[in-house]
Predict the structure.
Amino acid sequence: MAMILDGKKTAQKILDNLKQNISKYDKKPSLAVILANDSEASKIYVANKEKTAKETGFNFKMYQFDKSVTKEQLKNLILELNLDNSVHGIIVQLPLFNHLDGKEIIGLIDPKKDVDGFHPYNMGKLAQGNPSLICATPKGIMTLFKEYNILLQGKNVLVIGRSNIVGKPVSLLLINEGATVFCANSKTKNLKQIALNSDIIISATGHKNLVTKDMVKEGAIIIDVGISREGNRIRGDVDFENVKDIAGWITPVPKGVGPMTIASLMENTFEAFLTLEGLK
Ligand code: GUN
């Protein structure tokens, strides 16, 4: 029976620590969030970031746009926020409305304020093994490994999903730690064989029940980054009920990777604050 990698508890520990550190300064770290998409999921993600930021002692500014927003409007806002000394972190919630190019918009953020770690400068530093601001979900996953003393060197890790937000950056972080990484996607052949040879499986696809018990080696570590809906329930990529009988460690959905993403974003914003204010 697998033990639980408790993201909620670990995230709360990080946030309590941050709250205490923030209270030592006269100036508050400040996070600006740009929401240019009307999906319910994005609104919920941003509302969770706002609640956590405020509870932890950050200033939070939200810039919400409807479908009529233009590239120029977003560009002007980002250039303004880059120059605003009261703002330390800027994130653009993805995806954007279809007529906007996320990569182009994110490329406008000052890399020192890029607390999502999506700017090509920060992704490049990560690829070099010398990261500054690290994407929140991958950072949260690595923090969970550290919290539970899970060593990565020499481990076979299967990453399912190749997104710029999770799959690619988490693969780079794992490579940097000396893991042997297999990056799979929906077209990968023999996924089951590769999975059965893996010490760790990280799944980030949004497809329910993609990872089933017959794919998991006894004692393997399972990290479920997937989010999808089933009626009122939130589901991950992993068939949790059956996989937990064979895995060694497993993240639940919810209360697994999700809270770690938000806690890591807050850590990045505090780090950007210290750098920009010359406090470290
Ligand atoms: N969309 C899904 N995950 C994320 C994230 O971590 N940051 C942003 N900005 N958008 C997202």
